[in-house]
Structures are given as C-alpha cells and as structure tokens.
C-alpha cells in the first residue's frame, strides 16, 4: 500500500496523476490537490472515465505550511509530489518535515519577487531531512531530471571521465498559436529572458540573453537554431561531476517566438515589479500570464515532436569518446494518452518514475538529493516502458 499526494493540477499535475493511476499497482491510493479544486476534479473525472481508476481530490493553498500540514495529516501519504510552482517548494518541504513524509519536485525554488533560481535554498534543508530520516528528491522532470539521469548513466556505463556536456532541448512542435509558452508562462518567461550562463574551466561564464547561437540537428526534426541559456541542472551537475571541463544547456527558439519575447520585454510586460493600475497593484508578468493561452489547453492541435538529450565527450580506456542519448516525444501521442501536450508529458512521466523509485525502495537515503546522485539504471529501465524511450548514439558527430 503506497499513498501519494500530488500537489498542482496544471499540465504536469495532470500527467503525473494519469501515470500514477496507470501504475496503480505501485500507487495504490492517489490524492490530487491544488489551489483550485475544480481543476483536480476535472482530471479525476477524466482518469475515472478513461482508466477506471478513482483518485481523491482536495483544495490547498501550498503557500501556507499549516494548510499543507493539515492536508498531509488527513491524507497520510508516504510521499508528496510537488508539481505546483517553484514558489511553493520550501513551504511544501517544511510541511513534509513536520509530518514525516518524503518529498519530490521538478523545479528548484524561486522567490516570487526575484527572477533567480538556484539550489542553495533547498540544499540548506540537507541536515533537517537527514536528521528526520526522510528523502527529498529535487528536479525530477525532464530537464532537470532525465537529462541529469542520462549524464549519470553515461558516467557510470560509458566513460571513465566525462569532460564536455551539452544538454540539447528542442521543441520541434507547432501548436498553431502566434505566441504561447509550453509550461507556466510566468516561470517560463522568467527563465528564458535572463542572462545566459555556462560552466567552463572551473567557473561560470555569463552571456547576454541568447548571445550564443548555433544550428544543431535534432533526430527526426532537422536543423534548428539553438541558444545557450542557463538551466538549473547545470549547477548540480558540475558539482556532482567535477571532471566536467565545460557544461552548457541549449534550447531551440523560433524567430517568431524571440520577436514576441523581445516586444514583451521592450514594452515592460515581462517585468515582475508591481505597478499601480487604477488603484490596484498588479505585476505585469502575472497579468500577461492571465491573457496568454493556458499551456494545458495547447494539446489537441499540437503536432510535431520534442527532442531532448545529452551530448557528451570524454575518455574511455584512454581514448576520446562521444556519446549522445536522447528521447523524442510526440505531442499528439502524449495528448492521446493523457490529454496533455508533450512538454507536460515529458515532465510528468519522470516525476511519476522518481516517485515509483522511492516507493519501491530502488532509491533511498536520508537527505536532499539531486537525481543524478541516485542509481540511474532502474530509472532508465522504466523510461523505456512508461512512454519516454531513449536512443543512444556512440562516437557520432556531436556538432559541438
Ligand atoms: N523539470 C522539467 O523538465 C520541467 C518542465 C516544465 C515544467 N516544470 C515545472 O513543473 C511545474 C508545473 O508546471 P505546469 O506547466 O503544470 O504549470 P501550471 O499549468 O501553471 O500549473 C501549476 C499548478 O500549480 C497550482 N498552484 C499554483 N500556486 C499554488 C499554490 N499556492 N497552492 C496550490 N497550488 C498552486 C496551480 O493552481 P491554479 O490553477 O489555482 O493556479 C496549477 O494547478 C512548475 O514548477 C514548472 O516549473 C518542470
């Protein structure tokens, strides 16, 4: 008997709930809770109709620890899967500590009033989780998440030392909208408008936003303009794999997307500074989120694929070696299975697998862990059968 509490009923929460329900031999009881309970109820109804599995739902404002503690005490889960927003990471970790429950998330903490994400806030919980004998797994989506597991798997099985890591993230899909983000618009725009940053020779190198561009070829998709941006898994990967001489993260953006982004910034709509509008305080970026398409609604017309992977160079038996491991995910196939588009799917499936690893004791340990610190093998095995199969290319041209 393993009870799980999922917090957050957006695109990712929907996929996590679906995948847990599909694996109800492991997740014997599932509760989906969020700020707006009606969204949880819609997902629960859909799961009942399509999978015949009953899940319970609840309302919670995860900004408030006492509310969370009350809910966790009622539900009595073994694990909380946090797929709300990064702003809620610390309150949910606090509530897990108070109630003696394991914790897992997909994105690192960000303070709401500062567009800055780093692991320091969550790593600071290390001693408290350790003393409580509880496990906190950080960053168990696709990137961070699967990309970190890919790196750990490569280091374990294919290299003596890994030296160059390029994480390449391509969304080759088309949702037919002039501008929309694939996950929470506020979080997404904060992420992609900040300065670029990558690791080289023991230090961080900062760039202007989208300063470094290169056309990279993605399997089944083709050449796409790709840009170096800062992404959170780089921080833990360079710490956990000190042999890395360089680590970068590339993301594809279309010209149309970048033009919209530039306009949004130029007219002040990406600002997180509150302004006074007709006697009411509003945050421009939060207002923008309210008028942009809901990422969860993009699914039914979304065509094309995502392709995300790791391109790695290093040494094996004294020889230079290259290795590319990736997954391609079809937006349409994701929607047919879960009624969510590919970006939500590629995040939600790994979160469910991470939860499965903890509940089946394939992953364990007291403290706060990034996923690459865990055994990658049973996770990689599950990826193959849970909808995100991976492909390896040995000694190919990495283009980088
Ligand atoms: N690692 C990866 O690969 C990856 C990729 C994409 C996304 N992510 C992360 O996945 C998470 C979910 O993304 P998403 O696209 O599903 O976002 P979303 O569609 O905006 O959904 C967020 C959900 O969280 C709920 N929520 C927000 N504030 C809350 C609060 N105070 N208390 C309780 N619930 C609250 C929202 O409720 P309301 O409906 O009431 O607003 C909504 O149901 C984000 O943290 C995102 O950064 C990770």
TrEMBL record:
Domain Saccharopine dehydrogenase-like C-terminal: 141-387
Alphabetized InterPro entries for the sequence: NAD(P)-bd_dom_sf, Sacchrp_dh-like_C, Sacchrp_dh_NADP-bd
UniProt domain Saccharopine dehydrogenase NADP binding: residue ranges: 4-137
Top-level lineage group: Bacteria
PANTHER family listed in its UniProt record: CARBOXYNORSPERMIDINE SYNTHASE
UniProt protein name: Saccharopine dehydrogenase family protein
Species, as recorded: Reichenbachiella agarivorans
Record lineage: Bacteria, Pseudomonadati, Bacteroidota, Cytophagia, Cytophagales
